[in-house]
Amino acid sequence: MIKFYQYKNCTTCKKAAQFLTDHGVSFEPIDIVQHTPTQEEFREIVDKTGIEVKKLFNTHGAKYRELNLKDKLSDMSDEEKLELLASDGMLVKRPLAILGHKVTVGFKEDTYRDIWL
Predict the structure, then answer these.
(1) pLDDT tier at 91, thresholds 50, 70, 90
(2) If both were cysteines, with which of 13, 45, 103, 110 could 6 make a disulfide (CB 3.0 to 4.6 Å apart)?
(3) pLDDT of amino acid 43
(4) Which stretch of DSSP H or E encloses residue 62?
């Protein structure tokens, strides 16, 4: 079953969840703030899927801007980035959907259609 990390007030998460529901795709909704993946879980996601660590960041979020990460990320190691992501679910681009070697961040209907249907 797809692990579907979401934020309850996120309209993009709601659209993605509705898309999956409408197409009969089972998923486990997980609150990204209360149950942020650990550094080890993020490392496993990266290792299994090959996604770039920087693509996991919510670059439009207030927390990202507040911490001035646009300028800082390029000087950080992947392990430091993973640790930072694990420290605060609001830094993670959402929804984050994972199943085995497949992952999507954010919601684009075409991408969801290709990967999850």
Answers:
(1) very high
(2) 13
(3) 97
(4) helix 62-66
State the Cα–Cα distance between residues 108 and 116, nearest whole angstrom: 11
Helix (H, G, I), strand (E, B) or coil at 4: strand
Rounded distance between C-alpha atoms, residue 98 and residue 101, angstroms:
8
**Helices 78-87/39-49 angle, 10° precision:** 130
**In this predicted model, what pLDDT tens digit does every residue of 30-61 receive, in sequence order?**
999 999 999 999 999 999 999 999 999 999 99
Question: Got the DSSP string for 14-56?
Answer: HHHHHHHHHTT--EEEEETTTTPPPHHHHHHHHHHH---GGGG
Distance (Å, rounded) from C-alpha 6 to C-alpha 39? 18
Strand order in the sheet with 102-105: 27-31, 2-6, 96-99, 102-105
Q: Which two tokens stand for residue 33?
A: 């703030």
